[in-house]
Batch of 2 targets.
Target 1
Amino acid sequence: MGQQPVVRAAVMSDVARLAGVSHQTVSRVLNNHPSVRPETRERVLRAVHQLNYRPNALARGLAGRRSRVIGVVSFDTILYGPAATLLGIERAARAAGYGINIVTLERLDRAGMKSAIDALTEQSVAGVVIIAPMMTAALAVHGLPTGVPAVVVESGGGTGELPSVSVDQVAGARLAVEHLLALGHETVWHVAGPRDWLEARDRVDGWRLALEQAGRRVPAVVPGDWSPRAGYEIGQSLVDRPDVTAVFCANDHQALGLLRALHQRGVRVPEDVSVVGFDDIPEAEYLSPPLTTVRQDFDEVGRRCVAALLALLGAAGSTGPEPAQVEPVLVVRDSSGPRRS
């Protein structure tokens, strides 16, 4: 069997050729100009649909100029990580002289992703940044329409099709576990995030890898859902286990709930149990005790996303490729300490 030809994105001249009209007529139809005959308009729109042609800023520009708006696809959430990522992208775009147009989805599946991309390209964005923290969202990125410059914010090393920027979640988890092992703890328990989140998966991998490489026992993963309530309920079950001296929570909000459960049962932190979180939320240093955690630099994630997108666009002043992963930083506070005697 012969090799399949490379399929390129349709351009306006392809639509004109298939519809048997001029380039100018296609432009008039797409801009709803009243001087086009109904039968011609129908023929052009049929060709647009057949070719999956997407009129956007890359084809038309804004009155002959490049769009200064970046589209962002996110999902409806108040979770700290995705919200901070969105803010980092907005700050970086503004610094580069761009505005942003956000489409939020209740579900990050393929149909929703396609709909969001369609909505943004119809609004003449220059390119798109996709915040895809869940496995379903990462899968939905595959097979998106060609011809739309896009960058993905995700974990897991990228989609293989689009440039990707992320915090190195595996390295962050290892920082947390290695810190606790260095304090003399025999092993570290892990309160994980939801299984369908890429970041949660990578933090589990980093936790397990650090323990295995140190030759330590790997306890069963304790599944959570990112919420303080989950941390609190898990804490109530762990507190009765004498072998639990160190816990790494997959995010700070679960660590917050865990701290409360330990306090209510008279367990001292860090004298009896050390706790480490992940994210470094603004409240982390004001918890009791102040929380040791892993900081993610969301501003840097946003800057690299925008830089990668501008490089795709060939924008003036854009720099060459930067590392796709942003390194996390361990922030040591009072919730972690030496293992009790």
Target 2
Amino acid sequence: MRIALLAHLRHPVAAPFAGGMEAHSWSLAEGLMARGHDVVLFAAGDSDPRLAVDPVIPVHHEASFPGLEHRGDPGLVAHVDAGYAAACDRIAAGGFDVLHNNSLSRLPLERRRTAAMPTVTSLHVPPYDALRWFVQESRAPTHRITVTSRAQAKVWWPEAVPPDVSVLHNGVDPAAWPYRDTGDGSAVWSGRMAPIKGAHRAIAAARAAGLPLTLYGPIEDPEYWDTRIAPALGGAIRYGGHLSGDALARAIGRASVFLFTPCWDEPFGLVAIEAMACGVPVAGLAMGAAEEVVGEAGCLAPLGDEPALARAIGAALAIPRAVPHARVLRLFTRDLWLDRCEALYTQARAAS
């Protein structure tokens, strides 16, 4: 198939990934290409040059409009809308069999576009006002909508999930996150340094449990970093930087427990299954899809109950490392994910 992939534009689709959406788009493009599909990634122009990138905007918009995501800045909105509108027109005229829309833009959801182009839209965020109505109105036979978890589906459609909406769990390549049968007794955390990801809660829990903790990830919110994270570093709490690829997999795989601390309704939690693939059990907060993703591979505590999270660390340490690894192989591999994507593409095309 000739497949167009439309990505979010805040960050480049390139390692080291700024977040799960960037990792998702890169892995999807690379995986589909490996299966023989003709794939064009419509993304920021500074995305991975090893992929066939058609620039939606010249560079990711966090570089040109820093700190303005979700602020309603008219300049940023006009910049992004113009890029997406032109990209959608190029996709419509580009001889593609299907569009996989991973953006947060309303423009690919317009009925005139989904009627002309078989489309799969994957929702990676909880519903918010700028997107909710357009998603609800975009349903059509040629448009398949996916969410990353059952928990996310219930947030988007609390009364009843429509039959044309399905759960498409994210997946990872186990070879990229190699299994290790022992840990070094430490805790590890990975994610964006932003309040909703809860690194400060991981620090408090690790201290209460008496475990050394290393944090990895990009500093997305400098104020949060300066006021909540940097002052807490020292001794057994350290920051390991923003790593990518093999370096991050090795760092996570060395640990004995992964701390997963979302402070919002986490739609999935890609970082959790990356750790689980390495054999690292999870201690975390029962927010959003955490229970659905972690299952028997970890122990969860309520948000705000720091003693319970510290106890969850102790319980997770007792879980054999083969358990989280096996859960990923059963439910969350990239091959399973790509199989589902290909099936959705076929369904959308058959309805056109």
